[in-house]
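step 4 of 6: structure.
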Amino acid sequence: MKKEYILVLDYGSQYNQLIVRRIRELNVYSKLVHHDVDIKLLKNDPLLKGIILSGGPNSVYEDNAFTIDEEIFNLGIPVLGICYGMQLICHKLGGKVIPGTIKEFGKTDIEVETDSMLFNGTIQHQLTWMSHTDKVVSIPEGFKKIAFSLNTEYVGIENDEKMMYGIQFHPEVTHTEYGMKIIQNFIDKCAIEDKWEMANIVDDLIVNIRDEVNDDHVLCALSGGVDSSVVAYLLAKAIGSKLTCVFVDHGLLRKDEAKQVIELFKDLDVEFILAEESNLFFKKLRGVCDPERKRKIIGATFIEVFDNISSKLDNIKYLAQGTIYADVIESGTKTAQTIKSHHNVGGLPANMQFKLIEPLRELFKDEVRNLGRALGMPEHIINRQPFPGPGLAIRILNDVTNEKAMLLQDVDAIVREEIERDENNHGAWQYFAVLTGAKSVGVIGDMRNYGEVVAIRAVSSIDGMSADFCRIDYDTLANMATRIINEVPGVARVVYDITSKPPGTIEWE
Ligand code: XMP
């Protein structure tokens, strides 16, 4: 993205993506990169206007602790260290960090200098969110203290002349009372003029796509979910006749989904191909129980289908996908662990003949929805709930068969109907059913009913990166359970999943 920006160096804290989000919420572009980024790239980047060193789980004084190229401090742009980042600044520039005896975790009162750059416009006593044991006990020359707490002498430091700042707490966490104001103050110091707003991001994205694609043609993998639909609309606008959308029915879609997707795209003036490939997918998945293997097989089979289709078309060089920032991060960066191989990122085969084009790679889910609005997409497409590329395969625990998929489709349709009917659905952002693979005994009429255990999952979330289970009314849950057992033969029991993310994930596999 060609915009002035603030770079966040990733030292491994669980809050890192949040820092990026907050900056973007304040209409400035920001991105997260591994902390050992090449200093030469930074030196030659006129758009780089500020750097934030994130928090992290290490101790700066340990061997092998994540470190920093000190030249970053001499780039002449503002630098803010958060938690580990502040300790690193002190450690590197002649201050001292020691293991603390008292862990400061959670809401913590601090006292600040309100005339300092960072705390300007806030109040003297304020609440912050802390998560540290190590602490700074002496600060480098040229720095002064701008905040402290009962247990920690240096909670905020600054060297205004060198435009270097540090805070021990997390301004990105909503519990920090003046977090947004503090981030805004830092942004102001970075003197950024470019605005991160969807309306002008659309134009940038379109220019980027046109530059990249030139006279070649693009195959767009359309799942009917929000992300790939936005990509299709964006590409339609950018390259129109050079676009072919392919919608693969792998047999693991939601009930009647293929029909609905065809309906959704009938008004978009691009070539649309429906590939009915359920037999192929079920054959490849036969007997496979391991979640990661399922994901990889599905990724590879998608590519096989796209290869086949493109070999019959002219000049297709690119495959466009709706990969978003959460997919990229959750498929494992150098600092974050692989939680799941998202089929459109980690699950792709190495020998693919397409070049990938992923225009949403840097956007969070809610930003993607806003982009859809800026593109003039109908609300009912934008508001579709997310649906994973591997589809019901990752909601059918153990091996996947056509019969299980059909049973789950029926259960899932009831879950969706009942939640959508309930006005009091507690912000359900994603809601579906899972075939748990367990079996249980029940009784229907006077007959023994030995059948499947299905689970209902309903979560609230903003971007899928974290989620809470919805406090759905018992009456709605009861309705769902009764309808599922009465209407779907083969189900004996219904349970409700009350796990948040973290520690759970939204999908079961
Ligand atoms: P998890 O289960 O990782 O899911 O908490 C977070 C969000 O991502 C969706 N998801 C996927 N989307 N390909 C996708 O396109 C995938 O492989 C995939 N796995 C999970 C999930 O539905 C939720 O919205």
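step 5 of 6: annotate
 - The mean pLDDT is 92.
 - The radius of gyration is 25 Å.
step 6 of 6: archive
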